[in-house]
Amino acid sequence: GKKSLQQKVVDELKHYYHGFHLLWTDTKVAARMVWRLLHGQVLTRRERRRLLRTCADLFRLVPFLVFVIVPFMEFLLPVFLKIFPEMLPSTFETESKREEKQKKKLNAKLELAKFLRETIAEMAKRNKADTG
């Protein structure tokens, strides 16, 4: 059924607690990676991507903290998230938002594949007409 207002607030607080906890964990791992870089070790591609994502999340956290610190500004957070959907750090994304992003990427890849297939077919027709 429907959740009460108190349950919605508790769920949101848990969501943000888990988001900050994940961000803290990512930050500790990223600090170790930077330490390794400073000592001459090479990062793998996966580690490099994680380091870049964590740094981007930390830079996104600055405007997000304004909404948390300023009283009653958290009510404007949904409006700003509609305007700037990438403002929230990646650790705060919900599963539905993550799935929506993946669907958009997949649709874009499918459209690109369709375009390339049509282009190749058209080029094959031209080559066949030129040689025939």
UniProtKB/TrEMBL annotation:
It is found in: Mitochondrion inner membrane. InterPro entries: LETM1-like_RBD, LETM1/MDM38-like. Residues 43-128 form the Letm1 RBD domain. One of its GO terms (molecular function) is ribosome binding. One of its GO terms (biological process) is intracellular monoatomic cation homeostasis. Keywords: Membrane, Mitochondrion, Mitochondrion inner membrane, Transmembrane, Transmembrane helix. Its main location: mitochondrion. The chain crosses the membrane at residues 58-81. It is a single-pass membrane protein. GO terms for cellular component: mitochondrial inner membrane. It holds the Pfam family LETM1_RBD. This is LETM1 protein. The gene is Letm1_0.
